[in-house]
Each structure stands twice: as structure tokens, then as C-alpha cells.
């Protein structure tokens, strides 16, 4: 009896195993067919070609350069590969809400964050290369376009606008290495063609209205909720409660009590006595009638104020030639007679965190960078590539010879003195104000003629495109 029962159980188990293996085989075949279909999708194939051809060209040029340029190019390749994976998942996923979309795109955003981290801190040697990649990767955000009301430009326009931000730094690479190293020039040209026309044309041809989500796919997973690993110890404060559901409700904002300045204006316009709680100021409380107050500052108080200079925590000053290629001038304060006279056309000059000082460069150098300086004056004879002024405040720069390019970025207050040999220089400005250019007068001994560069612009939409012109002010 027991043997027959055991035989029947073994037969039943064998049948169940056969059914299970058949089901697994069917599911595996279905998944395989889905993956094959996605792999042969024209949009996925086209994006794969974009990576192999355009990104591959940038990587080939970066391998010849090495260093940080190669590192940031690897991040660029990783970001495009992450977007390809997202495009495949989109064809299998239903369109998520705003929070779900942010979680869905997090793998690509984490890669882009690594590129941005490389540009932070002290300005590296290949800063323009790093900024070109970091700013250009914002173009990949076209995949987050969900409709006209999402606050983004159309996908194709978004790619073009993102590249315009990165092109400022990419052009600096072209100018700096135009006659020095063809590998850097090839890298800069390759990264531009990656976006224009590469990514732009791909988006225009396959996703002009944004990515196409699957209406029958699986729902996108939202960000997982954080669960405490263990209960709080006895006597310890309880963890804060989760946020109220009203924070994510779709009710109009007028139904919730106003906060901040909106509440202030609402109370003022309500007609209530907003001064009811204020105290009455009597004559003896007024400053002019008080005998315990005086306008004289005591010597001790004055000394205490003057003994706390704002640059007391600055690093030690430095003026030296590093590795025979780069002059470094750092943390100079109140030094009016700084001079670099033993220099050549292969060397660069980097001026960092100097204040109320004057530097003379008595010779031809390759490149000059003035970074995070205040009330700094620089006089140079001639530069081969460019003179760059970045993150500065109230600086004066005089060119006594020639300079192909002068660039001013994120600077407030800049005086540029040009010689007759440098009147054909190209001046590039971005996020800067109060920039004046002084040129020699018509007479040999005449006064300098000052020209203010515009910082306000008018953008007009005409004939299907925007035209930009500086704001002109005229008195009448």
C-alpha cells in the first residue's frame, strides 16, 4: 500500500516538473522574442549607430590625449549607453508620473552628475574639455519631454540649446590648440558633430515629440520608500512622521493657507489692523533723545574691526614656474610690483585668488587665465592663444601687443585696454556685466577712447527664427 502511494506521488511530481519546465520555456521564448524585436527596432538600431560612430570618434581622439580628457570622455560614453538602455525600457513601460519619471531616469542622471563633479573645485588643466562634456550632456534630458506643458523646449530644440551652452567652452579648446595639437582639435570637432548633427537629427527623425511609451507595458516603478532598519531604542526620540498626502494633492493652491510673503500681502489687503500688536514709541525712546548713545567709535572697538581681514585664511602666496610649462600666481594680496620676465611662447600663466595687486608679463606666452581675482591688474606683452578672465570682480587687463582671443566669463566689472596691434582681437563675453574696452585714439598722443560692451539684449522671433540685437539707449 505504501509502495503504491509513493509511486503515485513520484509520478505526480514528475508531471509537475514537466509542466513547470514547459512554462519556463514558453516564458523564456516570449522574453527572447521581445528582446529580439526591441533589438531590431529602427530607433534602437539608429541610436546604437550613433554611439558606435559619433561617440566612438570622440573616444578615439580622447585615447590619444589621455588624462582627464579620456576620463570625462568615458563618462560621456557611459551616459549615452545609459540612455540607450532607457530607450529600450521605455518601449516596455507605461508613461510614469513626475516622481516616477525622475526615478526612471536616475541611472542616466547619476552618470551626468559624475561629469559635473569633475568641473568643481579648483580649476583643472583641461577645464574647457571637462565643461564641454558636462554642459553638453544636458542635451540627453530630451528624453524627459512629456508634452508642451512640461516646461521644456521641444526635444530637437532642447538638444540645440544645450549644445549652445557647451559650445562656448568647446570653442576655447579649438582656439587654444588650433596650432598646437591636432588631437585636441579633432576631439573638439568630434564632440560637436556628436550633437550637431548627430543627436539632433536622431531625435528629429525618431522622437520629435519625445519618447514613445508603451500603453500596454508594465508600470514604471516609483522611488522605493525608506524603511527604518530597526525600531528606536527605548527613550530615544521617535522618527518624524511621513509627509502629509496633501503635499502631493492636486487641489488648487488657493484652498491651502498661504505662506511666506503671500501670507503677508494677504493680511495687509484684508483690512485687518496689522499694527495692533506694535508698541508705541515715546519721545524718550527715540535715538536723538537718548543720552546713553553716542556717535563716537571707541579705539578698542575700531581696532577690533580692523584686525579681521577678509583674506586672513588665504593660502600662502605663490609665484613660480611649474614643470617648466606653467607660471602659477596665487594668493597675492596688495602686491603692486609682480613681474614675470623669463617666459616663452610655450608657457601659460594661471592667476588665482589675487587681490589688489598688479602683475606684468614681459614676454610672449601661450595662454593667460585670470581666475577668482578682485581688483587685479594684468599687463602682458603678447599672447599666442587667448587671455581668459573667469569669476572675477573689478579687474583691469592691458594688452601691449597682439591677442587673438579675449574671453570674459562670469565677471562683474572689467576694463580691457587694447593696443593698435590687438584691435582685431575676438572678444567673447558670457554672464558678465560692466565690461568696457578702451582703444587708442586717432592721434598718436590722443586719449583712450572707451567703448561699453552691451549686457542687455532683445530677442525677436522673425521669419521662423530668433534674432538677437543689443539694447540701445538714447536720450531725447
From TrEMBL:
Pfam families (UniProt xref): CAP_C, CAP_N, CAP_N-CM
Disordered as annotated region, ranges: 217-261, 276-315
Compositionally skewed regions (Pro residues) per UniProt: 234-244
SMART domains reported in the protein's UniProt record: CARP (SM00673)
Biased composition (Low complexity): 218-233, 245-255
Residue ranges constituting the C-CAP/cofactor C-like domain according to the UniProt record: 316-453
Gene Ontology molecular function: actin binding; adenylate cyclase binding
GO BP annotations listed: actin filament organization; cAMP-mediated signaling
Family matches, as InterPro entries: Adenylate_cyclase-assoc_CAP (IPR001837), Adenylate_cyclase-assoc_CAP_C (IPR013912), Adenylate_cyclase-assoc_CAP_N (IPR013992), C-CAP_CF_C-like (IPR017901), CAP/MinC_C (IPR016098), CAP_C_sf (IPR036223), CAP_CS_N (IPR018106), CAP_N (IPR053950)
Biased composition (Basic and acidic residues): 280-293
One GO cellular component term noted in the UniProt record for this chain: cytoplasm
Family listed: Belongs to the CAP family.
Protein known as: Adenylyl cyclase-associated protein
The organism of origin for this protein: Trapa incisa
Amino acid at each position: 500500500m505504501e509502495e503504491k502511494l509513493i509511486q503515485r506521488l513520484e509520478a505526480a511530481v514528475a508531471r509537475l516538473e514537466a509542466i513547470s519546465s514547459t512554462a519556463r520555456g514558453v516564458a523564456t521564448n516570449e522574453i527572447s522574442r521581445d528582446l529580439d524585436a526591441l533589438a531590431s527596432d529602427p530607433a534602437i538600431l539608429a541610436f546604437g549607430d550613433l554611439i558606435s560612430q559619433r561617440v566612438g570618434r570622440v573616444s578615439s581622439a580622447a585615447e590619444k590625449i589621455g588624462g582627464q580628457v579620456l576620463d570625462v570622455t568615458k563618462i560621456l560614453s557611459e551616459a549615452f549607453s545609459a540612455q540607450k538602455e532607457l530607450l529600450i525600457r521605455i518601449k516596455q513601460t507605461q508613461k510614469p508620473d513626475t516622481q516616477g519619471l525622475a526615478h526612471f531616469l536616475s541611472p542616466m542622471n547619476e552618470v551626468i552628475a559624475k561629469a559635473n563633479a569633475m568641473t568643481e573645485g579648483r580649476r583643472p588643466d583641461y577645464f574647457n574639455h571637462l565643461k564641454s562634456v558636462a554642459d553638453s550632456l544636458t542635451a540627453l534630458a530630451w528624453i524627459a519631454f512629456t508634452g508642451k506643458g512640461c516646461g521644456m523646449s521641444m526635444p530637437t530644440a532642447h538638444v540645440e540649446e544645450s549644445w549652445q551652452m557647451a559650445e562656448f567652452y568647446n570653442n576655447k579648446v579649438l582656439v587654444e590648440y588650433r596650432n598646437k595639437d591636432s588631437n585636441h582639435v579633432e576631439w573638439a570637432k568630434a564632440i560637436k558633430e556628436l550633437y550637431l548633427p548627430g543627436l539632433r537629427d536622431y531625435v528629429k527623425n525618431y522622437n520629435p515629440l519625445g519618447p514613445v511609451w508603451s500603453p500596454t507595458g508594465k508600470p514604471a516603478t516609483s522611488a522605493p520608500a525608506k524603511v527604518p532598519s530597526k525600531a528606536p531604542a527605548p527613550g530615544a526620540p521617535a522618527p518624524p512622521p511621513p509627509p502629509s498626502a496633501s503635499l502631493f494633492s492636486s487641489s488648487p493652491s488657493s484652498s491651502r493657507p498661504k505662506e511666506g510673503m503671500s501670507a503677508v500681502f494677504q493680511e495687509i489687503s484684508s483690512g485687518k489692523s496689522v499694527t495692533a500688536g506694535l508698541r508705541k514709541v515715546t519721545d524718550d525712546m527715540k535715538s536723538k533723545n537718548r543720552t546713553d548713545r553716542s556717535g563716537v567709535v571707541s579705539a578698542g572697538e575700531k581696532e577690533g574691526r580692523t584686525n579681521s581681514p577678509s583674506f586672513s585664511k588665504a593660502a600662502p602666496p605663490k609665484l613660480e614656474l611649474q614643470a617648466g610649462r606653467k607660471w602659477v600666481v596665487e594668493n597675492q594680496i596688495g602686491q603692486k610690483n609682480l613681474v614675470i620676465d623669463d617666459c616663452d611662447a610655450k608657457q601659460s600663466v594661471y592667476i588665482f585668488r589675487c587681490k589688489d595687486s598688479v602683475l606684468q608679463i614681459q614676454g610672449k606666452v601661450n595662454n593667460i587665465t585670470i581666475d577668482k581675482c578682485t581688483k587685479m591688474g594684468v599687463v602682458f606683452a603678447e599672447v599666442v592663444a587667448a587671455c581668459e578672465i573667469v569669476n572675477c570682480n573689478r579687474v583691469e587687463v592691458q594688452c601691449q601687443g597682439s591677442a587673438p582671443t579675449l574671453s570674459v566669463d562670469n565677471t562683474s566689472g572689467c576694463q580691457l585696454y587694447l593696443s593698435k596691434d590687438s584691435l582685431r582681437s575676438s572678444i567673447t563675453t558670457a554672464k558678465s556685466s560692466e565690461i568696457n574696452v578702451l582703444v587708442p585714439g586717432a592721434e598718436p598722443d590722443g586719449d583712450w577712447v572707451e567703448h561699453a560692451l552691451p549686457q542687455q539684449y532683445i530677442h525677436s522671433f522673425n521669419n521662423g527664427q530668433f534674432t538677437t540685437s543689443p539694447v540701445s539707449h538714447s536720450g531725447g
